[in-house]
Design goal:
The protein is of the alpha/beta class and 496 residues long. The chain contains 15 helices and eleven strands. Strands 1-11-10-7-6-4-5-3-2 form a nine-stranded mixed sheet, with helices on both faces. It has a two-stranded antiparallel ribbon with strand order 8-9.
């Protein structure tokens, strides 16, 4: 059973890609990226850290490749107890580590209370941590070392070095923390290296969004429910928009209408219609991910509860195609032009440039194979089945290789994780990635916390006066578990 945190009380029980236009399966360009701390003003807090580089092995699992590369990491020890104080270790995501560092306010806010050192480690093949420099993506030989296994080994080796070289850190217990893909890595890090990290906080970590562990349509259902709850007629308007687009885009006049209505930067061609619909899908998905209770500026500058604002334009699903799509534009414009500064809308851009589409696309074409589908009945999208063969063919065409859809479950155990311990899985009730998350506690040491009003790991964001009570209580509970792991580690401390 999960520890579910409703609005007024805490009930404690037992303690998403750029393939949509090329693939018949529903495949959102949104990935499980880290959406973390943001101050109430919407300005990212600037934190005091030191940038360092560690000479990391390119290949941890073979002996023929002896090359190394500089892995970037950030370190902050202002509040650290130099006599074995804990280390909070952020398992870097698919992007620039500075961006994640400046957007994970939870870690910074609890560092003083825990007297903890903070370390933010960059994931190989992202940011500045390129194993082969500018040639890292130039051929499959260089890309062969781009796996979650190698990334976790990087983290383990880095931590061992830090504990051996920083005076006072030898007995420091290490807690892994991450959100979304970073949360997946945090959980897997504890599973694979329990000798390195004593516990993990895995926020919005869809570790079960693989193979047949969860229904492929659950993701779309959660997105749809967010819109259903935010305004009458809203989800139905979006659902009806697909036929409206299909009908209008069948003529040159209709394409011109769509281009003008949506203020597109480039005129829409018949060959662009798939990309256009994919762009809209990404918009609705991203809004579900960042449906926060206050103004924020992460993927885009957005108002508080942005889906409710969007739904004010989508009250009448029975309108004609032209009028309906004019309203769809007004809704989309909330996401892309809340500041009013955008002169036109670019359908090739949906989120921040700090996330690396190329790197994540490669990962989805190798080991991060997450099935998505929609049926048009339980969701507001066009019916699109999951087609693994077509997905594989697309990856073969684009990268020259085929994915291994069952490797992640083989490597990390799928749902058979009961032998592990000391992991807190937090998920938001509004977050579509909760579809693949651990939302029920597996044991008294594998804890699920559900935050009903939470979007994509709201708990890792900085505190805000408008935070729901549920997320405040979730953070407090997470800190209690971290303290418990630290205390247990100190009582049974063994130096690396």
């Amino acid at each position: 059973m999960a520890i579910e945190l409703p609005v007024a009380v805490v009930t404690i029980a037992t303690a998403a890609l750029a393939l949509a236009t090329r693939n018949s399966a529903f495949q959102p360009r949104s990935r499980p990226g880290a959406l973390s701390g943001q101050w109430a003003s919407g300005h990212t807090a600037q934190f005091d850290y030191e940038t360092r580089y560690f000479q990391q092995k390119v290949d941890h699992f073979g002996f023929a490749e002896d090359a190394t590369f500089k892995q970037r990491y950030l370190i902050a020890d202002r509040y650290w107890n130099h006599n074995g104080g804990p280390i909070l270790f952020y398992t870097g995501n698919e992007g620039d580590i500075i961006w994640f560092c400046n957007n994970t306010g939870f870690m910074w806010e609890v560092s003083k209370e825990l007297e903890a050192m903070l370390v933010f480690a960059e994931h190989r093949y992202y940011g500045e941590s390129m194993p082969f420099g500018e040639k890292s993506f130039s051929n499959l030989k260089h890309l062969n070392y781009f796996t979650s296994e190698q990334a976790l080994a990087d983290f383990a080796v880095l931590i061992r070095s830090l504990k051996q070289t920083i005076p006072g850190a030898q007995t420091s217990p290490v807690i892994a923390i991450g959100g979304s893909y970073g949360g997946m890595l945090a959980a897997w890090f504890r599973m694979k290296y329990p000798n390195i990290v004593v516990g993990a906080l895995a926020a919005s970590a869809p570790i079960w969004q693989f193979e047949n562990l969860t229904p492929c349509g659950s993701f779309c259902t959660i997105v749809t429910n967010d819109f259903l709850k935010s305004g009458q007629g809203c989800a139905e308007s979006i659902k009806n928009s697909w036929d409206a687009i299909n009908n209008l885009s069948s003529t040159a006049e209709g394409l011109t209408f769509l281009s003008r209505t949506f203020h597109l930067c480039s005129p829409l061609q018949a060959s662009d219609v798939g990309s256009f619909k994919s762009w809209l899908i990404d918009t609705w998905v991203n809004l579900a991910m960042v449906d926060y209770p206050y103004e924020a500026n992460f993927l885009q500058p957005l108002p508080a509860w942005p889906i409710k604002v969007v739904c004010t334009f989508l009250k009448d699903p029975s309108l004609s195609a032209e009028l309906l799509l004019q309203n769809i534009f007004q809704a989309v414009n909330v996401y892309y032009n809340y500041t009013g500064n955008a002169e036109c809308l670019n359908i090739s851009q949906t989120a921040t440039s700090n996330l690396d589409d190329q790197g994540w696309y490669y990962q989805t074409c190798t080991e991060m194979v997450m099935p998505f589908c929609s049926d048009g009945v339980n969701d507001m999208f066009e019916p699109v089945p999951w087609d693994l063969q077509l997905f594989s063919d697309t990856c073969k065409k684009d990268w020259g290789l085929r994915p291994r859809p069952d490797w992640i479950t083989t490597l990390y155990g799928g749902k058979n994780i009961s032998s592990h311990s000391n992991i807190v899985f937090s998920n938001g009730g509004l977050d579509p990635w909760a579809s693949g998350g651990v939302t029920n506690s597996v044991s008294d040491t594998l804890i699920a916390i559900v935050i009903p009003e939470g979007a994509h790991h709201l708990d890792l964001r900085s505190r805000n006066d408008k935070d729901p009570i549920s997320v405040r209580k979730a953070r407090a509970l997470e800190v209690e578990y971290i303290k418990k792991w630290i205390e247990e580690a100190k009582n049974t401390s063994v130096s690396l």
